Amino acid sequence: MQLLKDRIRKDGKIKEGNVLKVDSFLNHQMDVKLFQEIGKEFKRRFEDEEITKILTIEASGIGIACVAAEVFDVPVVFAKKTQTKNIAGDVYTTKVESFTHGRVYDIIVSREFLGKGDKVLLIDDFLANGKALEGLAELVKKSGAELVGAGVVIEKGFQVGGDIIRSKGIHLESLAIVESMDEKTGEVVFRN
């Protein structure tokens, strides 16, 4: 998706430790017009799939998932990282290690919102080590729903996550795959 790649080159910042900061337009301040184009692109890439729900993980995937859900005309469910009083009763839960935060979370989805008969598309902002998508896929499996695929805005192609997800047979669509990035020059190279 050329529009996204251009925006990453223009406004993305490369930090030490292979961190690509895109918080000025993707996951802190959000460019909703860009999100609309992202949603349309996910719809185009998954147009042959029947999708009844979009599942994401708290927090930075929620905005993208909501705009994509509007294009797909389906609800969004997001896995919470902490149990709250709002989530009472039966839940699906699994553990997820966050690359960005360097910690392990229990992620939780109420059984009320995910189950047999649902055809689920996973949506997330980044794919690095694959742990978030693996955890979301595990929740889908536990629920008895069908995992249709996963849509990621930015994949770090030089990390193992994409390979892990694809090796599990999951239909993965990444809108921009970063092949390499250089914090000294600010250069980002994308896979074609």
Automatic annotation (TrEMBL):
<feature type="binding site">
    <location>
        <position position="156"/>
    </location>
    <ligand>
        <name>xanthine</name>
    </ligand>
</feature>
<comment type="pathway">
    <text>Purine metabolism; XMP biosynthesis via salvage pathway; XMP from xanthine: step 1/1.</text>
</comment>
<feature type="domain" description="Phosphoribosyltransferase">
    <location>
        <begin position="34"/>
        <end position="157"/>
    </location>
</feature>
<keyword id="KW-0660">Purine salvage</keyword>
<keyword id="KW-0808">Transferase</keyword>
<feature type="binding site">
    <location>
        <position position="20"/>
    </location>
    <ligand>
        <name>xanthine</name>
    </ligand>
</feature>
<dbReference type="GO" id="GO:0000310">
    <property type="term" value="F:xanthine phosphoribosyltransferase activity"/>
</dbReference>
<dbReference type="InterPro" id="IPR029057">
    <property type="entry name" value="PRTase-like"/>
</dbReference>
<protein>
    <recommendedName>
        <fullName>Xanthine phosphoribosyltransferase</fullName>
        <ecNumber>2.4.2.22</ecNumber>
    </recommendedName>
</protein>
<dbReference type="GO" id="GO:0046110">
    <property type="term" value="P:xanthine metabolic process"/>
</dbReference>
<dbReference type="GO" id="GO:0006166">
    <property type="term" value="P:purine ribonucleoside salvage"/>
</dbReference>
<dbReference type="GO" id="GO:0005737">
    <property type="term" value="C:cytoplasm"/>
</dbReference>
<keyword id="KW-0328">Glycosyltransferase</keyword>
<feature type="binding site">
    <location>
        <position position="27"/>
    </location>
    <ligand>
        <name>xanthine</name>
    </ligand>
</feature>
<dbReference type="GO" id="GO:0032265">
    <property type="term" value="P:XMP salvage"/>
</dbReference>
<feature type="binding site">
    <location>
        <begin position="128"/>
        <end position="132"/>
    </location>
    <ligand>
        <name>5-phospho-alpha-D-ribose 1-diphosphate</name>
    </ligand>
</feature>
<keyword id="KW-0963">Cytoplasm</keyword>
<dbReference type="InterPro" id="IPR000836">
    <property type="entry name" value="PRTase_dom"/>
</dbReference>
<comment type="similarity">
    <text>Belongs to the purine/pyrimidine phosphoribosyltransferase family. Xpt subfamily.</text>
</comment>
<dbReference type="Pfam" id="PF00156">
    <property type="entry name" value="Pribosyltran"/>
</dbReference>
<dbReference type="InterPro" id="IPR050118">
    <property type="entry name" value="Pur/Pyrimidine_PRTase"/>
</dbReference>
<comment type="subunit">
    <text>Homodimer.</text>
</comment>
<comment type="function">
    <text>Converts the preformed base xanthine, a product of nucleic acid breakdown, to xanthosine 5'-monophosphate (XMP), so it can be reused for RNA or DNA synthesis.</text>
</comment>
<dbReference type="InterPro" id="IPR010079">
    <property type="entry name" value="Xanthine_PRibTrfase"/>
</dbReference>
